[in-house]
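Fold this sequence, please.
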Amino acid sequence: MLEAAHAQPAWVLLAYLIAGVCFILALRGLSNPESSRRGNRLGMLGMAIAVLTTLVTHIPELSYVSAESKEIQLFPFFDGVTLLEILGAMVIGGEALDLGKVTIPIYNLATREDHIAPAKSVFLGSKFFGGPVKFVLAGSGHIAGVVNPPEPVKYSYWSDAPALGNLESWIEKAEQRPGSWWPDWAQWLKDQDPAEVPARQPGGGKFEPIEDAPGSYVKVQD
């Protein structure tokens, strides 16, 4: 029995350990009506981790170890897809990205009505970085909420609450401020490093400017 446990890859033992912790926390959550919903979610998460780990490691037809990447891959149903990708990790060039290793300060902006990068997803992403994160929520959507100059005062933004819990509870604790988020971002940059350099002169490089922004091409109609 002990030899079989030692024969298991480290990730398998870790997966079962995480599943066990989820089960314990689930039982604790289910003991209180106020936390029962969270307990259910933790129980389902622990079950999913345990079942997936068991399927991958105990049914040969469902998995194999890639000789090149040394990673367990699901086969034949998910041919070429690594276990990390199945679990939702972002893999680029065979390397799994670990946002926890990003330790520089982050100004993480979301817009309240964004349908491309939903505010809930951006807020959740704030929790994965390894350094300090300032989460800011701007009014409007994907374009107007970002390209929102200080004049005229058009939309509001929310800031100055720690990125904890869920987006709804964060909004309740955050301070709503009228106008653009740009001055807040500028002040945040100065807080990181107050040093400044002269503004670059447009057209002062290798290429001469053709015309004033935004350019005549934006007015072209088919």
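Residues 8-96 form one domain. The CA atoms of residues 14 and 152 lie 54 Å apart.
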